[in-house]
Design a protein that fits this description.
4-stranded antiparallel β-sheet, about 220 residues, alpha+beta, elongated, two-stranded parallel sheet, about 55% helix
């Protein structure tokens, strides 16, 4: 009986592992992008020299710079912009493309604030990242209650966010990760899921039936 439980748990673990691996490969055909994202979060790719790429007058007030960035970087999900669910660009790429999500805007805004010698810090919730600067007013999606991580003076600080908004977090994640996923990606991912689940069930039935047969008395 212990052998049956052992083989059954191994088949389930293998199936789950293949499902996770398939999901990852469909989302990131080039895994380097995924791991580079973490590296860029650790060392946020701020680049004050992007001022030279902007053919416009940059305001001096941080709130006006923030408005300028929102107009300069049209909001676009990473699936549409880069073909992956999560992508952290560098400042040059973000400003040249002229579109991106909250990370693109945060990188450009931080770069311009640094170029203007204006102090700032980074904040992030489960679904958003933004830049804090002197005089910034909190909003529903940008405030200390929803932030779980912040980078101040080059050091990250963690805290427990307000989890009463978990339903909002789930809706936002579903929209960013699934709703805007290209249709062909959804088809490929679901096809793989069906294949691996069916393969796991097939292995489970035939392997366990074979093991049980070993324990049947010989007539």
């Amino acid at each position: 009986m212990s052998k049956i439980v052992f083989y059954k748990s191994n088949i389930i673990s293998a199936t789950i592992g293949m499902l996770l691996f398939w999901t990852f490969i469909v989302c990131y055909p080039n895994p380097y992008i995924f791991f580079r994202n973490f590296a860029r979060y650790i060392r946020f790719p701020v680049n004050p020299s992007i001022m030279e790429l902007i053919d416009a007058d940059i305001p001096d007030e941080p709130s006006e710079i923030s408005k300028f960035v929102k107009n300069a970087i049209r909001y676009e999900y990473d699936w549409s912009n880069y073909g992956v669910p999560w992508y952290v660009p560098d400042a040059v790429d973000a400003i040249i493309r002229g579109k991106g999500d909250c990370e693109s805007r945060a990188i450009v805004l931080a770069s311009l604030l640094e170029a203007k010698n204006i102090s700032y810090s980074l904040r992030a919730s489960f679904i958003h990242i933004w830049v804090e600067y002197p005089g910034k007013n909190p909003t529903k999606s940008e405030n200390d209650e929803v932030a779980y991580i912040g980078k101040v003076d080059g050091r990250y600080k963690l805290k427990m966010p307000d989890m009463r908004q978990w339903q909002r977090y789930i809706r936002a994640e579903r929209e960013m990760l699934w709703d805007v996923m290209p249709r062909i990606k959804k088809i490929v991912m679901l096809s793989g899921w069906i294949f691996f689940i069916c393969s796991g069930l097939f292995m489970k039935v035939h392997t366990l039936s074979g093991i049980k047969g070993c324990f049947e008395p010989v007539k």
